[in-house]
Specification:
72% helix; 509 residues; globular; 25 helices; 0% strand; mainly alpha
Length: 509
């Protein structure tokens, strides 16, 4: 391994890269960026923001936390008495003597990293089996039972795991339930829409309770990177094999484009969104100091595969989200890297298929096409619907998403809204979009504080990688319905829980 590392450092690619980095670090542009950064850092506004960013979270300031912690303390005695009863039960004896049960339980929640594979491949293979559609609910229930049992029997006298995101998340759930009860023209649609909003964000609470050491957090991160890397390699294979691109993925006026890769997820845009989430995390793992050469080499290969596949998706929205993610990552770790980011963005424009996609988006033909039957037309109609139902919306599941599109017999005039924020506003009105915005704003604020709170470089890399991926997906949601895909919501909140673990609870765990 030492020989391989020495050989790599002597290679032309490594030496050329180091020369370029040294030139950039000592260039006039780098010194200018550094001077501007120093001026900004020394300003009064920056000082106020620093004070805001280092604020500690006080769980006792949350009414929700105080209520649940009171119940936790009062039930500790009952749980103490129930533990011997459980150990003497026949079910416990059978399960504890099993060879496979302990290992299965240990890896139950980390299996969430394979959510996309299970959902997509499972539906292709077992789509005709009606009960398969409930696998995600069963997975969620078993995972919730596991964390409940750990709390009930193993953490009798420990305080609850606190999170600053919990209260706004409960607020969104409460507002969603109220709108479902009060404002559903079709009750089954309303319930389906409510389930889509609530079910998948519950994974945040499960991960928040599950994560209590670095080993668990890094296991899930590694599995996520492996999932993204496999999709990246599969996407490259699709491009090599020239898998046909459906005509609906490009405008007629745009003409023929290269193959748009989509891996197992069936959509280049959603595949790009997965890469937005995972690439910054993979980059953070590559850059960590305390990492073996073999680990670094594997992560570097997976990073390259995901980066190349992200380009091959030809998804402009994913490119925008990725640009935002990289910008946030560079800003959090080393602002000088923004020069490399700009150079990389410029180099991408030299790729003909990328240049053609960007050029067409800026052309009058694209605007005309978008106004007649594309995004701009949908945004305009969506905004008009919001203004007509501005307080409580048209009803959960009644517009713009998969639930409404699957029930066009009830809602014939609906269409797919390529903007999750606007889709939420139309369905849930001002009440719903404010509740959702409060949750996202709270997550962003405490994510920034988490990144700022990390003094260890390797941990800061992880928190910055998680946060930048979340920011990229939030921006991507402005031009795609990313959160309409269940595993995208699950991955988003799983990574959010890992971020807050490393940034807020790791030192106290």
């Amino acid at each position: 391994m030492v020989v391989l590392e020495s050989w790599f450092k002597q290679s032309v690619i490594f030496r050329f890269t180091m020369v370029i980095i040294n030139i950039l670090n000592n260039s006039l542009l780098a010194r200018g960026v550094e001077y501007c950064a120093k001026v900004i850092i020394d300003s009064r506004i920056a000082a106020m923001l620093r004070n805001f960013a280092v604020k500690e979270y006080d769980p006792e300031s949350s009414l929700c936390y105080r209520i649940f912690e009171s119940l936790n303390r009062k039930s500790a005695g009952f749980r103490d008495r129930m533990l011997p009863v459980l150990k003497e039960s026949r079910s416990f004896c059978i399960l504890s003597d099993s060879r496979f049960f302990p290992a299965g339980i240990q890896f139950l929640i980390p299996l969430v990293a394979f959510y996309a594979f299970i959902d997509e491949i499972g539906r292709d293979i077992l789509g005709d089996f009606s009960l398969f559609g409930f696998w995600d609910e069963a997975f969620l229930i078993f995972s919730a039972i596991y964390v409940f049992c750990v709390w009930f029997f193993q953490k009798q006298h420990k305080p609850l795991v606190s999170t600053p995101v919990g209260a706004p998340m409960i607020l969104l759930i409460a507002v969603s339930f109220y709108l479902y009860v009060i404002n559903s023209t079709y009750a089954p649609l309303g319930f389906a829409g409510f389930r889509v909003v609530v079910q998948y964000i519950l994974w945040f609470f499960i991960l928040n309770s599950y994560l209590d050491d670095d080993r668990k957090a890094y296991l899930i991160l590694r599995l996520l990177v492996c999932v993204g890397g496999v999709m990246g390699l599969h996407g490259i294979l699709q491009y090599i094999m020239k898998v046909p691109t459906p005509k609906g993925w490009t405008d007629v006026a745009e003409g023929n484009t290269a193959t748009r890769v989509f891996s197992v997820v069936g959509s280049p845009n959603i595949l790009g969104s997965i890469f937005i989430l995972i690439i910054p995390i993979c980059l953070a793992l590559v850059l960590q100091k305390n990492r073996s050469f073999l680990d670094r080499a594997v992560f570097f290969i997976l990073l390259g595969a995901m980066g190349l596949s992200l380009i091959l998706t030809l998804s402009r929205g994913a490119w925008l989200g990725a640009a935002v993610a990289f910008f946030v990552f560079c800003l959090a770790i080393n602002p000088r890297w923004l020069i490399l980011l700009g150079a990389g963005g410029g180099a991408m424009m030299l790729i003909p298929s990328v240049f053609n996609r960007i050029q067409y988006m800026l052309s009058p033909q694209y605007i005309a096409s978008s106004l007649t039957g594309g995004r701009l037309m949908r945004y305009q109609k969506g905004w008009e619907l919001f203004l007509q139902n501005r307080w409580m919306g048209v009803g959960l599941g009644h517009f713009g998403g998969a639930v409404a599109m699957n029930n066009k017999d009830l809602i014939p005039n609906t269409f797919y809204m390529d903007n999750y924020w606007l889709k939420t506003a139309v369905e849930m009105g001002t009440m719903g979009i404010i509740a959702f915005a409060v949750l996202i704003l709270t997550l962003i604020v405490w994510s920034i504080r988490s990144v700022k709170h990390c003094k260890d470089y390797d941990t800061r890399l992880i928190t910055a990688g998680c946060f930048s991926g979340l920011c990229g997906v939030l921006v991507h949601n402005l031009i795609e319905n990313v959160f309409e895909v269940p595993y995208m919501v699950v991955y988003f909140w799983v990574i959010a829980a890992i971020l807050l673990y490393f940034g807020r609870r790791r030192q106290k765990a």
